[in-house]
Amino acid sequence: MRFKQSLLVLAISGALTACGGSSSDSTNDNTSGVSNNDETSTTTTSVVSEGVITGFGSVYVNGQRYRSENAEIAVGNSPAADEAQLKVGMVVTVAASASDDGEDPDAQQIRYEEHLQGPVSFIDREAEQIEVLGQTILFDDLTEFDETDIETLSVGDFIEVSGYINDEGSFYATLVELETEETEIKLKGEIANLDTDAQTFSLAELTIDYSAAEYEDMTADDLADGLFVKVEGDDFDGDTLTLTASSIENKEDNDIDNDAEEVTIAGIVKDYDSESGVFSVNRYEFTLNDNTEFDDGSLDTLANGVIVKVEGRFENEQLLAEEVEFKATDARSKTEGQVTDLNADNETFVIDNTTFSVTPETQYEDESDLDERSFTFDDIAVNDWLKVISRQDDQGNTIALKVKRIDQEDREGEVKGRVSDVSAEGMTIANVAVAFNENTEFEGEDDNISVERFIELVQSNPAVIVEVEGEYDGDKLIAAEVEVETVGGQDDGDDDDGDGDDSTGKAEFEGEIESIEGDSVFVNGNELRFSQDTEFELNDEEVDLQTFYDALEVGVVIEIEGLWVDQSYIKVTEAELETNDEE
Prior knowledge:
By secondary structure, the protein is mainly beta. The strands form five sheets. The protein has a 17-stranded mixed beta sheet that branches. Strands 1, 2, 3, 4, 5, 6, 7, 23, 24, 25, 26, 27 and 28 form a 13-stranded mixed beta sheet that branches. It is globular.
């Protein structure tokens, strides 16, 4: 059994019972003879919110804490889940009642449903993309990885993904979770290329064979191009990208109707029409008017592909956008260190002489030995070790977007940000002292560079963003790799359409060999070329070019690093192959 009751209906019914009756209710049905005049009436509001879980201690969504002790919780196909099954990074829908007594809203229902589940077919670490079932999954530093990370994730791994729908066939992942037990494939999308004779249709790049499917909230006659559905199945052919569906569920209708009093939806802007002022976020259609307010941006900032949080209400069957808040994702910094100061009143903490401010939407997680599920700002203490993803606002304040408590020995040796005090011996980045040595490698936007060229790039452009990987020696980070991520404010990939066509600069990915044509190898449409200078590794052993080339076969997974040449092919600098031969 799945949840059939509207989230809004549940929110309204909860609001009616939670208010204790209005003033008129209080004077009726008084059988005890006791006066009700001293009862205080409470006004309640039905609330529906959809967004990412950022913390616990109840449940935090869209910057709001929702009391969850009485909530019905659904996770996937389980309508009787509990809060322990919810995770930071999940996109959930919450139905709640908010009162005017200053208390946090009381959630009646919290529902989570994965956007996609299936095997990984391609990983592009440089472009920050993963492909599953023909769909492109975009990720970044704010994406939460559970039971895996982007370095250990491999082609063939089975993952569950939650996130925000972007363009057709792609979306931004807020959570990537490794699945080790469940193998059922699940995905949502709009039907295209419906063929009732062949009993097939397309979801993005995937062909769906629905000849043996069962239906929920619909029948086979309801299938039509453009219908938004969820498909599940076990029988998947990766060569033809064909899934034989065991069930198809109509997901066309959302859970919000015109009786909602407050609606908050976070996601990616789609189908924006500047003339009519209409746009959609997570399949909810909003309309702008003269009273719409904008936060951290303006009307000119509104565009397709931008991540926003929209607060709205219904009027004449239209969902009016009362406030649009832009979720800044640029100029991020990454650091880790020990808390040296804390200000509870201002909600700030200090690491490496940098003062970080938190907001209601800061994401929290405890990965230390304490493993506190309800970890928030209130639990941070001086001397705690934290890993922080941040950005600077227009006033120059450093805003913590994501805070993880860690143990000192679990520091990753990774920092990212703007550079100061650079020299041939080292630099300061995000107020962390970084030292260079003879083994430090420097990477520009298009090739390996010398330390002199690196210094020139940094000194000539204060906007440059640099990422460092290394190991700590006391408080100093000894850099193994130093990579220039942006120069002059230019976009590294200029790939707003999410199609993965990032044919410039460095390449680093993992995928199956599609074809071998002469001396060239093709993976996910990318041409690879090797040379005697390429470093080859076969089954964890260094080999020469010929030995490596002899081991190549169509269907074998190859992992490479290299550089794009003339936007047409990749000159491979490092290549790794696992053939699983038992010899």
